[in-house]
What we know:
Blueprint: H1 8-27, H2 30-34, H3 38-81, E1 86-91, E2 96-99, H4 101-107, H5 111-114, H6 128-141, E3 145-152, E4 158-170, E5 173-182, H7 184-237, H8 243-268, E6 277-279, H9 281-296, E7 300-305, E8 313-315, H10 317-334, E9 339-350, H11 352-357, E10 364-373, H12 380-385, H13 403-413, E11 417-422, E12 428-435, H14 440-444, E13 459-463, H15 467-479, E14 483-487, H16 490-493
Helix pairs in contact: 1-3, 7-8, 7-15, 8-13, 9-10, 10-13
Amino acid sequence: MKNKKSRPEDAADLRQKAEAVFFKQAARSSEDLVSLSSEETRRMFHELRVHQIELEMQNEELRLAQEALNVSHARYLDLYNFAPVGYITLSEQGLILKANLTAATLLGMDRSELVNQPLTGFILKEDQDIYYLHRKSLFESREPQECELRMVNKDGQLFWVHLTAVASQDDTGPICRIIMSNITERKRSEEENKTLQAQLTQARKMESVGRLAGGVAHDFNNMLTVILGHTQIAMDDIDPSEPLYHDLQEVLTCAQRSADLTKQLLTFARKQVIEPKILNLNQTIKQMIIMLQRLIGEDIKLIWKASENLWAIKMDPSQIDQILANLCLNARDAISNGGKIIIETGLKTFDPAYCAGHPGFVPGDFVLLAVSDDGCGMDKEICNNVFEPFFTTKETGKGTGIGLATVYGIVKQNNGFINVYSEPGQGTTFKIYLPRCTSVDEALKIDLSEEPVPRGNETILLVEDEPAILELTQKILQRLGYSVITAATPGEAT
Ligand SMILES: Nc1ncnc2c1ncn2[C@@H]1O[C@H](COP(=O)(O)OP(=O)(O)OP(=O)(O)O)[C@@H](O)[C@H]1O
Ligand SMILES: [Mg+2]
């Protein structure tokens, strides 16, 4: 007997032999068949049995081969359908001929519905060019091509894909096989990294500009103190009716304005001397509302929405005034023909998970101060620069670009953070998050009211390394009745 590995030629051989025997026997008359010897009959039966067994064996082999084929086909279908990537076969015209289940799920349709749909129907309008070039180079070069683009599924959901395409041929003509991987998550984290990187660069830039501004402002402030002091002393010495008095008044006003500007720069550089107090933001804002309405004029409506049960914050109240005045003035300038400004407060808690997904946010409890307007809004470019000192879009003389830099400095000095949301023509919202103050002891502290300038005749040892300031302070103290001994360094003083 032949083994299981009998080949089709052997089977054909056997069949021919059996036919030969049969035709040989059939060629004889029926009498001949009867007259067959018992030996011949036995041999014939034997041959027939051998044929039958061979056929049964072949049948069995065919059945087993069919079963193996079915198993392998089912495995192929599983692998094809449930592959982690989408497989799509396209006609030369770009129509979908076949798609696996993953591709159909990504596109949000049944596989049968997809047949004969153009793939371009699922590609975002803005990315159609990428796909066009991708197909062009595929059919021109006949080399595999890759690209990344955005697609939109049947429900309008946008997702990013990486496509690898191979040109091929089947019995219908040229076709193209596409492997489609969903890369939305990767793109999202790339985007987040980019935003974080940009924020880091921005923070570093602000830090160095702050250091520079702080350094210059510090020296400038010293000089202004001297200018202001001497002017004041000179004015004390002359009669207000003299023309020189008027000139000195002008010097004083300008020096005062420069000092205000320097103070703002120092605020941005977080070097401003502050007196933080425990406050309820609502109360501080309430005291400001009438003044703010006057500041922005009657044409613009000021809406005040106070959130209830606000947490306490610890801050110098004059800094809240500075923030609101700057934001409201900017909002006023952004509104052309009447509009509204909304000042809102609120409570916000951010957990680390939220902050991980929202660059720029810090975990913790915060009191929110939001100022929105329905003015002209800003484009992305402006939004990215608004907090930089001396960045302004206003005409010369109308803005110095220091307002928002001051606000930024104040918020940072108080360990808060600020975000801006704006679109051209869609208005602007600034959201400031100030950390909640939980210290009870702090809440008990009371304000120190201003005391009158003391006078006396005691001797004072005055130490100051800046000669101009030393001289000025000496002069002022002497005018208040004190005897003054001066020294430029602690060593000199001892
Ligand atoms: N609410 C807003 N709507 C539209 N643009 C704004 C708004 N707030 C700020 N800006 C833009 O940001 C720029 C910078 O604002 P910032 O307050 O720092 O300076 P400024 O208002 O130009 O000058 P300054 O405040 O020193 O007088 C503005 O010139 C303006 O282009
Ligand atoms: Mg401003």
